[in-house]
Amino acid sequence: MITITDSAMARIKNMLAEEETPGMFLRVGVNPGGCSGFSYGMGLDDEESAEDVYMDIHGLKVVVDKESVRYLNGLEIDFKESGMSGGFTIQNPNAIATCGCGQSFRMKDEEGQPQECD
Fold first, then answer.
1. In angstroms, what CA-CA distances link 61 with 23, 35, 106, 110?
2. Phi–psi pair at 17, nearest 5 degrees
3. Cα 55 from Cα 26, distance rounded (Å)
4. pTM check: above 0.90
5. How confident is the model at residue 111 (pLDDT cuts 50, 70, 90)?
6. CA–CA separation, 47 vs 56, rounded Å?
7. 51 and 69 in contact (C-beta within 8 Å)?
8. How confident is the model over 86-115, as a mean pLDDT?
């Protein structure tokens, strides 16, 4: 369902290693809002819910809330270095439009709640 490239996997595992909280995992989700209607959420978490779906991606625990699953099938998470900085990028085959920021998208059958970009 979700693919994480080698460079993103290395970066995420480094971030997890820097945390002092045992049992942390990667949480990925979708929120209403953003320039195009929906925005991605991604971060480290250690709290689980009965509403979560769990995946093991090459030894990394990835958690997605049940509401977000339908938006993320086929999602690819990458990490790109650019000069002295870098960042995660998301490619979503389900999105028909994305914002220039790369964090907001629109689906074919759902417009979400578009808002001004920050």
1. 9, 30, 27, 29
2. -65, -30
3. 10
4. no
5. low
6. 17
7. no
8. 69
